[in-house]
């Protein structure tokens, strides 16, 4: 069966077609409230200052979070493939709302840990299911060619929500306290849940595909993901680069605290990065077209490494200007990799395979975050950033070489098939 099967095999009624079209703008609204979170600018200093946890133990708190996320990523992706994208998205955002509120009121380490566990399950429920939901909705109305553009808009809307959360959350924390913006974010997440229940489940199977059992579907997804070199190496490459990059992103608030920036200004510093993310996501199709897929895949790790080198070289608050570089690359990587994978994987295992990529990302982050946090606490943030730069320099080049080889081999095979009468 071809993974690039045409949409002529899918026939829907006019009424269903309208519902699938409506899925797109409803998902825009859903994603806005998921990312319009007031805890964004202060959640880490909330752990440090409100709950009295050290930097190394705050990053260690994320270890069970990422481990559970790793364990649940593929099972919840299989849930989306087996029982539906809408089901997975709705349950995920409902669980997220609960987790955020518990996180904000947690008075001890045990409750914080419990909130992290629920949060991890919530993330996995809509990780992979979200992009699969959009792709399958577009495919049902013969618009899957617009996926990269639509997903770029989704990422742009996420950036808008994040900017509002950063600005308003920091101000609310300055006027009140560090826990109130977090609890209020649970209400915003609840609005996203209300939007999710209006979704119309799109067709998940192409012509000739059968719905596999939960276990068989997960096994088939692993076979496809790791059996195709271009897919396997793309996932490993991007998971490594962005896992280390996000490990550095988590150090943003300790960086600002180290340079004695007050809470009310915490939201302003990440805004340039979010603004760049907005435009990068919105123009993703054009950027990929102009720069080229291969050049962009090479550029992303170079940009993230530049951020690490810059932050590790300059011990001044102005060094924060390096952060927007990796923030923009992170936003741009989503439409790039999801479109790359979607073109090469079957629809019936789409959510599960996309979740496998998230699993690999989490595996990298579960190592990178606590290591960088421990180094930052025991030595300095400068040394932590330098460590991140070295990690990228050592791990990324071989992965990039293997992906380039697999991608070019796949391209040559495709061209040979096209030339064959």
Overall description:
The structure is a single chain. This protein is mostly helical and 421 residues long. The protein has a single domain, classed as Growth Hormone, Chain: A, CATH 1.20.1250.20. 78% of the residues lie in helices and 0% in strands. It is built from 17 helices and no strands. It has helices at residues 14-35, 43-50, 55-83, 85-105, 109-126, 129-140, 147-175, 180-196, 214-227, 229-249, 252-258, 271-282, 284-291, 293-313, 323-342, 350-378, 381-419. Helix 4 runs antiparallel to helix 5, helix 12 runs parallel beside helix 15 and helix 14 runs antiparallel to helix 15. The protein starts with 13 loop residues before the first helix and ends with a helix.
Task: Calculate Rg over CA atoms.
Answer: 21 Å
Helix content: over 70%
Question: How many E strands?
Answer: 0
Q: How many domains is the backbone divided into?
A: 1
Shape summary: globular
Estimated share of beta-strand residues: under 5%
Can you summarize the main beta sheet? Answer: none
CATH homology superfamily: MFS general substrate transporter like domains
Could you please say which CATH topology applies here?
Growth Hormone, Chain: A
Q: What's the CATH architecture name?
A: Up-down Bundle
Q: How many DSSP H or I helices?
A: 17
Label the structural class.
mainly alpha
Unreliable segments of 5+ consecutive residues: 1-8, 415-420
Overall pLDDT level: 85
Q: CATH first level: which class?
A: Mainly Alpha
């Amino acid at each position: 069966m071809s993974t690039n099967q045409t949409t002529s095999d899918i026939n829907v009624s006019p009424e269903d077609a309208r519902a699938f079209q409506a899925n797109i703008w409803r998902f825009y609204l859903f994603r806005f409230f998921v990312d319009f979170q007031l805890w964004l600018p202060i959640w880490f200093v909330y752990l440090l200052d409100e709950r009295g946890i050290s930097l190394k133990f705050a990053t260690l708190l994320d270890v069970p979070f990422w481990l559970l996320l790793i364990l649940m990523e593929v099972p919840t992706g299989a849930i989306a493939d087996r029982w539906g994208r809408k089901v997975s998205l709705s349950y995920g955002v409902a669980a997220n709302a609960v987790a955020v509120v518990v996180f904000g009121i947690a008075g001890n380490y045990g409750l914080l840990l419990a909130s992290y566990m629920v949060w991890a399950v919530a993330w996995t429920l809509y990780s992979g299911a979200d992009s699969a939901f959009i792709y399958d909705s577009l495919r049902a109305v013969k618009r899957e060619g617009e996926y990269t553009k639509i997903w770029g808009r989704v990422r742009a809307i996420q950036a808008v929500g994040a900017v509002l959360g950063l600005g308003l959350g920091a101000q609310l924390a300055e006027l009140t306290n560090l826990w109130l913006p977090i609890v209020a974010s649970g209400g915003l997440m609840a609005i996203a849940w209300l939007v999710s229940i209006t979704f119309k489940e799109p067709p998940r199977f192409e012509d000739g595909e059968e719905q596999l059992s939960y276990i068989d579907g997960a096994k088939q997804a692993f076979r496809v993901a790791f059996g195709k070199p271009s897919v396997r190496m793309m996932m490993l490459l991007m998971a490594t680069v962005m896992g280390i990059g996000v490990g550095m992103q988590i150090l943003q608030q300790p960086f600002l605290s180290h340079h004695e920036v007050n809470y009310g200004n915490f939201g302003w510093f990440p805004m340039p990065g979010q603004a760049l993310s907005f435009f990068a996501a919105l123009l993703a199709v054009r950027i990929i077209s102009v720069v080229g897929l291969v050049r962009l895949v090479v550029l992303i790790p170079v940009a993230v490494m530049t951020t690490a080198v810059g932050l590790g070289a300059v011990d001044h608050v102005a060094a924060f200007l390096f952060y927007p570089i990796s923030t923009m690359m992170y936003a741009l990587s989503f439409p790039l990799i999801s479109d790359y994978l979607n073109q090469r994987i079957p629809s019936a295992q789409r959510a599960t395979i996309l979740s496998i990529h998230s699993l690999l990302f989490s595996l990298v982050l579960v190592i990178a975050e606590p290591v960088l946090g421990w180094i930052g606490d025991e030595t300095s943030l400068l040394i932590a950033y330098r460590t991140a730069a070295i990690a990228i320099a050592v791990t990324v080049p071989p992965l990039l070489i293997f992906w380039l080889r697999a991608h070019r081999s796949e391209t040559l095979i495709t061209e040979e098939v096209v030339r064959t009468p």
